[in-house]
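Subject: Sanity check before I submit

Could someone independently write out the structure tokens for this chain? I want to compare against mine line by line before I put it in a report. The sequence has 200 residues.
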Amino acid sequence: MELASYLAGERWSDRPACTHPLLAGLARLVNDHTSDSARHRLAALIPSVIGVTGDDPRLDVRIALRCATTALPVVAHERQLAMAVSILSAEHVLIGLDGSPDMAERGQEALAQVPEAARWAAEFGRGVRVSLKGFRRYAAPSTVQLAVRGIAQACVPDPDALLRDLLAGAIADCRALVPPHAAEVVDPARWVDACRLTTR
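---
Independent answer below. Compare away.
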């Protein structure tokens, strides 16, 4: 995220104003949990986070839902339960926000892969209503953290690739909500300069 702040012409920071805070948090976690040998593959995603920000609460929901649906099929059992609850919570918030059907469908597809966790989550959440404020402040950041850590520790052939795909998918989900004029164009010379900085 420091390179994103540089490319956007901001003060050097891992929390740039040019990127939605939860998406920036996901990017930091993915970077931290990616192996040294695979971290360079994340560099190509840096320009795509610039200008992806705003107050639309659907951004938080999309990020959390992408994380939970990606993690649910591969993480350990106890984390599956948390991811299933996260999906149901995100869907509840989506209903209140008039969210897109494709996002809810993604959640249902993920839950269908782990029916036991889905049943447990439905029972656990029966009668519980998650507020938008509570979801954005607590549930969404917790979901992101648990999902990334769970994927990094999962018994899958290439967790680095899965983490990169997760970040790329979350960026694409968010960019679909950002007005085209809001996404900033990166100065090619600045990008080349940034690449030189990272290879020293």
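---
OP: Matches mine. For the report I'm noting this point. The CA atoms of residues 21 and 33 lie 18 Å apart.
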